[in-house]
Specification:
- The complex is a heterodimer of chains A (248) and B (233).
- Helix content of chain A is 37%, strand content 23%.
- Chain A is built from nine helices and ten strands.
- Chain B has nine helices and no strands.
- Chain B has helices at 2-17, 22-60, 64-79, 82-93, 101-126, 130-139, 143-173, 185-196, 200-230.
- In chain B, helix 2 packs parallel to helix 5 and helix 5 (101-126) packs across helix 7.
- Classes of the chains: A alpha/beta (248), B mainly alpha (233).
- Chain A binds chain B through residues 56, 58, 81-85, 87-89, 91, 93, 95-100, 108-109, 112-113, 141-143, 157-158, 161, and chain B through 129, 131-132, 134-135, 137-142, 145, 149-150, 153-154, 157, 232-233.
- Bound molecules: adenosine-5'-triphosphate and magnesium ion.
- Magnesium ion binds next to helix 1 of chain A.
Chain lengths: 248, 233
């Protein structure tokens, strides 16, 4: 792949939380290309969430650089708010705004930040809602939705900004098992449409099916990365072998 | 029994009707309501500002100096009696300035109330899940926008009942306005007492009026609480 295709370029990323002995991230470097679906797996506490949250600077890295679309977003002079509009994020706990109905959840940011008219924003939102099968819930409030519905709305909320990359932090971990499928379906469709995605998950079968590349993290570092087939069939490091034997 | 009624009517006449003495009560009530109303507004403005500064510092470590000033303000206001604050503001701070007593009272009670409002609002802000904040920031809202569109509306809703109670307290506290020679409701009743040498009738009337106002406010707060709970989105 050519370097123009690199959407996010992470270099020597380190993160140390205040009061912690060890680094949560200990020198992570990776290029994420346009259209790539990168899955991040690893044991609990290995730094997956921290890595993902550093990508849009929800966590401030202690060291290292992150280039997003060629711009160093770790540079203090960069207006991070501008770039975050292009990086959709989906949280484990959905984090819908409970005081707004679904439509308002979806249109707030496009209207306030991208200068869209309300009609325009609602039209985009409605199209996306239809695609995830929730057009009939536009007037509902978040507390009237099931977990699976909430997460699909949360994905749509991020998509309404027309992001260049979508970041997912365990999007199905807070869901009842019967609702996992509906969320994974939406993600699968996104991947098929060549949305660039970075997904932290424990859903190994889903990773195997959808990922273009899987990254194994342990103790704040990328230990191994590979295409899905080789990742599961030919793990090289002992740590990944140990991990896979536990989760599969 | 009828003697008692005649005596009561006489006392009522002397205390309220004669020389239009009821006007001490109504004028006083009007003063009390005005002080309370404007002090509430000032208290809300100060309270929200202080709360936002304090929680910004808690969340981001920014605004260190402003946060320090706010903390001094809170300690001083909440650590001293409101009468003393009123007297200091009137006789010390505005001593050399010719300024209306109403203005001084509103400033004093507003500053006092602001300290309590600030802690109520701050607890409201801190009670909002930090995921809400992160969701706002991840969409590209800056800190202030996230506060305005996402955090404060939820925080405000959560603390409305507590704010209502704070204003009930404030209404009653304005009864010390007589210390700076304002003729509020309490003082109005006291003036009648000093004219008629009858303490019971005017002071009971004053107490009754406060009680009714507080009960009305409490009723409204409870109604609001119920409405908020039923629409608990
Ligand atoms: N805000 C924080 N303050 C202090 N330490 C933190 C904070 N967030 C994470 N950590 C620590 O950093 C390390 C990496 O955490 P992280 O949440 O990135 O792990 P993870 O791989 O996402 O784990 P999980 O699978 O349990 O979600 C852990 O040791 C964790 O305790
Ligand atoms: Mg995590």
């Amino acid at each position: 792949m050519t370097t123009d295709n690199v959407l996010i370029s992470v270099n020597g990323l380190k993160k140390k939380f205040e009061g912690m002995e060890l680094h949560a991230l200990n020198g992570v470097s990776i290029d994420i290309h346009r259209g790539e679906v990168v899955f991040v797996v690893g044991p609990s506490g290995s730094g997956k969430s921290t890595f993902l949250r550093c990508l849009n600077l929800l966590e401030e890295p202690t060291e290292g650089t992150i280039l997003f679309e060629g711009v160093d977003i770790t540079d203090k002079k960069t207006d991070i708010n501008k770039h975050r509009q292009k990086m959709g994020m989906v949280f484990q706990q959905f984090n819908l705004f409970p005081h707004m109905n679904v439509m308002k959840n979806l249109t707030l940011a496009p209207v306030k930040l991208q200068g869209k008219s309300v009609e325009e924003a609602q039209k985009t939102a409605m199209e996306l809602l239809e695609r995830v099968g929730l057009a009939n819930r536009a007037d509902a409030y978040p507390n009237q939705l099931s977990g699976g519905q909430k997460q699909r709305i949360a994905i749509v909320r991020a998509l309404c900004m027309k992001p260049d990359v979508m970041l997912f932090d365990e999007p199905t971990s807070a869901l009842d098992p019967e609702m996992v499928g509906e969320v994974l379906n939406v993600m699968r469709e996104l991947a098929e449409e060549n949305m660039t995605m970075v997904v932290v998950t424990h859903e190994m079968a889903f990773a195997k099916e959808v990922a273009s590349r899987i990254i194994f993290m342990d103790q704040g570092s990328i230990v191994e990365e590979n295409n899905p087939k080789d990742f599961f069939e030919n793990p090289k490091s002992e740590r990944l072998k140990g991990f896979l034997s536990k989760v599969i | 029994m009828s003697d008692w009624i005649i005596a009561f009517k006489d006392r009522f006449y002397v205390n309220f009707i004669k020389d239009d003495r009821w006007q001490y009560i109504t004028n006083g009530l009007w003063v009390t309501l005005r002080i309370t109303f404007f002090a509430v507004i000032l208290g809300i403005v100060i309270g929200f500002l202080v709360a936002i500064i304090r929680s910004t510092y808690d969340k981001t470590g920014k605004m260190k100096i402003a946060n320090f000033i706010c903390r001094v303000y809170l300690v001083v206001i909440r650590g001293t009696p409101v009468v003393v604050q009123l007297l200091i503001i009137y006789f010390v701070i505005f001593a050399s300035v010719d300024i209306g007593k109403m203005f001084v009272a509103v400033i004093a009670f507003g500053i006092n109330s602001g300290a309590y409002v600030a802690e109520i609002v701050r607890s409201g802000i801190m009670s909002i899940d930090k995921g809400q904040f992160e969701a706002g920031r991840s969409l590209g809202f800056n800190y202030v926008q996230t506060m305005i569109y996402i955090i404060l509306p939820q925080a405000f809703k959560n603390v409305l009942p507590a704010l209502g109670n704070e204003f009930i307290v404030l209404l009653k506290e304005t009864s010390i306005s007589g210390y700076i020679a304002m003729e509020d409701l309490t003082k109005g009743g006291d003036i009648i007492r000093s004219r008629t040498y009858d303490a019971m009738m005017p002071l009971l009337a004053v107490a009754l009026i406060y009680l009714v106002m507080v009960m009305i406010l409490e009723f409204l707060v409870r109604k609001l609480e119920r409405r908020l709970r039923s629409s608990d989105h």
